Amino acid sequence: MNWDDYRTFLAVAQAGSFSAAARTLHVDHTTVARRISTLEQDLGVKLVERLAREVKLTPVGKRLAALGTPVEEAMASVERAAHGAGNSLAGVVHISAPPSLATMALAPRLLALRQRYPDIDIRLTGEKDFANLNKGEADIALRLSRPNTPGLIARKLRDIPFFFFANHTYQVLEDHWEFITYHEEYNSMPQQTWLLAQLGARRVVLRSSDAQAQAQAAASGLGVALLPDYLGDGDPRLKKLTSALTPPPRELWMLVHDDIRRAPRVRAVMDFLISTLAR
């Protein structure tokens, strides 16, 4: 049995579909399907029932998935120990961050890191879900909340203020603003929860799952978007609107697993992120 095939099966068991597992593993859908088929052939049992939009574990699949959790944790621990054992300022460091933060606040600053540490290569992933640092899905994670996950070291970098932004030509009284917000499935996000409580009878003209799409729509003149400073300030077409309301800030946290935080290349990138993003 190939360990990578089995790890793929565990990802499918946790994610509930081939496509979701593929996103977690950073591979394509066909690779996941192929590895599951290979594992089933090697073991001589059927592990999953393939449905239209999801997969369902067979009874044998459920038993093998339960047995695999401690094995996966042990393998992840070995991989972290090996990853953190290097003593050079060279190699790959994987950073996971919210998409708009990765695009607007981090990517434009990476040249300075490259100039300082030319032998460190960065892998930057913009993702809304939390990368599992215990499983090595990233080395460093930037998040707008602090997960309470054992084994992780967390450092608060700063408070990120939110403001109302609209196109420079937007001349509508606050009581009549029309808003651009997130989809309903994001209503539990702190800034979305707060905004919905303030809307009253005012209209939502666009709902989008992507903060950058919201910013682009606001810049076009469609309406008012509640955006973090790094996203709204970066677009010259947008202006901050004066409001009687004060949106609450979000906390920006940097997370790293204790097993790898002392690796020189990881420490160097952490120090860079602190100097660049903390204020």
TrEMBL record:
Transcription in keyword set: yes
InterPro entries: LysR-type_TF_proteobact-type, LysR_HTH_N, LysR_subst-bd, WH-like_DNA-bd_sf, WH_DNA-bd_sf
Family to which this protein belongs: Belongs to the LysR transcriptional regulatory family.
MF term (GO), any: DNA-binding transcription factor activity
Protein name per its UniProtKB record: HTH-type transcriptional regulator TtuA
Role this protein plays: Transcriptional regulator of the ttuABCDE tartrate utilization operon.
Key words, A-Z: DNA-binding, Transcription, Transcription regulation
Superkingdom as given in the UniProt entry: Bacteria
Record-level GO BP terms: DNA-templated transcription
Segments forming domain HTH lysR-type: 1-58
